[in-house]
Design goal:
CATH class of chain A: Alpha Beta
Number of helices of chain B: 2
Number of strands of chain B: 1
CATH topology of chain A: Beta Polymerase, domain 2
Radius of gyration of chain B: 19 Å
Largest sheet of chain B: none
Mean pLDDT of chain B: 93
Helix content of chain A: 25-40%
CATH architecture of chain A: 2-Layer Sandwich
Radius of gyration of chain A: 15 Å
Structural class of chain A: alpha+beta
Number of helices of chain A: 6
Low-confidence stretches of chain B: none
Strand order of the largest sheet of chain A: 1-2-4-3
Helix content of chain B: 40-55%
Number of strands of chain A: 8
Largest sheet of chain A: 4 strands, mixed
Oligomer: heterodimer
Distance between the termini of chain A: 32 Å
Low-confidence stretches of chain A: none
Shape of chain B: elongated
Chain lengths: ~160, ~70
């Protein structure tokens, strides 16, 4: 993920008022726990108008008819997780409307970060910890452990 | 900066933690990611991939070698 590309994506989300929160490795990085990643993970509101705004933002960035295949009814229903790989194929965007039954957009605590004038909505350390602590993925469990130590979240 | 000597790597202090929400953090992560991509370039199948769950998405991502 190149920095300028990442900023362009987040700036387009902000410009088009997409209801999203950055989670995953980029959110970990924003909170000071940096590692390499090949994707941007966002939790979005699956509300139809928001998904329209998301698609408008993506279309502004990528000349790709595939973007039309992102559908609000599917995000809200059968397919709550979408991976969008832009035409160049060198990274992807994870677009998630809910994680199991535990977390939806409205449940995600976030805080703002401003990077070169771009407002970025980032999940809080406590939220990232809650999202990661009970998953089966080893990287998530490691992230949860680091967050617990760094932000004194052990009791949660 | 003075030379500091340690009997073991385990005795060496970790680097100071990065400040949360420092705007430089994202840049650092992206630079690290760009370096990782150059060391091990991968291409992923372009398009929209839909999943019933995050676990399903994770399985696809593993199949890409990522």
């Amino acid at each position: 993920m190149e920095f300028e590309q990442t900023k362009r994506i987040l700036a387009a989300f902000d410009r088009h008022r997409v209801d999203y929160v950055l989670v995953g490795a980029m959110a970990m990085a924003a909170q000071g726990v940096v590692r390499a990643t090949r994707d941007i993970d966002v939790v979005v509101s699956a509300e139809a108008r928001n998904v329209d705004r998301l698609k408008t933002a993506l279309r502004e960035l990528f000349d790709d008819p595939e973007i039309d295949n992102i559908r609000a009814d599917e995000l809200a229903g059968e397919y709550p997780a979408i991976q969008y790989v832009p035409p160049a194929g060198d990274f992807w965007i994870d677009i998630v409307a809910r994680l199991g039954e535990a977390f939806r957009f409205a449940d995600i605590e976030s805080e703002d970060l401003v990077v070169d004038g771009v407002r970025v909505r980032v999940a809080t350390p406590r939220m990232l910890y809650r999202m990661k602590k009970n998953t089966v993925r080893p990287q998530d469990r490691l992230d949860a452990q680091i967050l617990a130590e760094r932000f004194d979240l052990r009791e949660e | 900066m003075p030379v500091r000597k340690f009997r073991s790597v385990a005795d060496m202090p970790p680097p100071p933690p990065l400040l949360p929400l420092d705007p430089q953090n994202l840049k650092l992560a992206c630079e690290l990611s760009t370096t990782a991509s150059r060391l091990r370039p991968l291409r992923f199948p372009a398009g929209v991939h839909k999943h019933h769950s995050l676990d399903e998405a994770l399985r696809l991502r593993r199949s890409w070698g990522a």
